[in-house]
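Attaching the record inline, Q. Sequence:
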Amino acid sequence: MKSIRRPAPTLGLLSALLLVGMAEAEEEKVLLVAGQRAAEAGNGVEISYSIPKPGTIIWFDTMAIPNDAPHPGNAHLFINYILEPEVVAGITNYLWFANSNAASVAFIDEEIIGDPGIYPPEEVKAELFPAQAHTSRFTRTQTRAWTRFKTGR
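Structure, as predicted:
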């Protein structure tokens, strides 16, 4: 079972641009780099992603256009292009990350579609749940903690 591929250099750019999203992107990079290093060591250690049995927060990707974008029409064209089944399947085949475009499945490598850590079965999806909104106090505390962690202060 091949769980990890070489990380894409733009992985962080493709993740949600929220503080929590950036934190998760950093964790994804660590997992991908750890998997790459384990493979390079050649000692048979394999690192893979799995979803806990009790479930976890459902994940999703976001493409958004800022209110003050200078060329929103071009942004719409870009988003429409990315959502083309063959294009988003190419991204999935490169990054080994799921996408939500059902029409793209025909263009995704079988090994990726068959990996339950990437495309979980329905019984696992049933255990996924949305993240709950936090209070502004919690968000401030989380942001401060993350900043202290990142800056070492």
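The two ends are 41 Å apart (CA to CA). Residues 1-25 have pLDDT under 50 and may be disordered.

More tomorrow.
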